[in-house]
Amino acid sequence: MKKYWSEFRQFAVKGNVVDLAVAVIIGGAFGKIVSSFVNDIVMPLVGVILGGVDLTGFKWVIAKEVLDESGAQIQSEVAVNIGMFLQNIVDFLIIALAIFIMIKIITKTKEKIKKKEEEKQEQEPELSEEQKLLTEIRDILKNK
Q: With 43 labelled, which of 5, 37, 101, 133 sits at a CA distance of 20 to 30 A?
């Protein structure tokens, strides 16, 4: 059992798993922010532009609610919630756009770093074996 536990710990503390966990947590928080942005800012503005219509309440009623004489509900309303569907589409589009922009920025940054490293390597003269060994010894002594 200890063997499995140690293997699991090694797996769990690897950089990729920790990075993934952080990404999921940040993604969840980002999703809430985008949902609030769409619900509280975008959709009300779209509703005002369309003449004061609340799009989240927009639905196509297939079967109306049935009540008895006392007003108690016998059968629930059956409806297609088009407004909520549109709101979720706007949520998705904003999140997809934000992720696209982040990936583009990260890709460009990586390309710049790679290009700088290549330029740096081209500028540095090739060290002889003796120089490499002395550099390693220097670095080891510096770290102690």
A: 101
* Annotation: CATH topology of 2-143: 1.10.1200
Q: How far apart are CA 83 and CA 76, in angstroms?
A: 19
- CA 108 from chain centre, in angstroms, equals 18
| Residues 72-88 pLDDT 10s | 888 888 999 898 888 88
pLDDT value, residue 105: 92
What is the C-alpha to C-alpha distance for residues 107 and 80, in angstroms, rounded to an integer?
A: 41
Provide the 3-class DSSP secondary structure of residue 1: coil
pLDDT given at position 15: 63
One-letter amino acid for residue 15 of the chain: G
Ordered DSSP codes for 13-70 = TSHHHHHHHHHHHHHHHHHHHHHHHIIIIIHHHHHHHTTS--GGG--EEEE--EE-TT
Residues 6+ apart with CB under 8 A from 124: none
> What is the value of pTM for the model shown?
0.56
Extract the residue ranges of the chain whose pLDDT is less than 70. Answer: 12-13, 15
CA-closest candidate to residue 84, choices 109, 48, 60: 60
Residue ranges of domains in the chain: 2-143
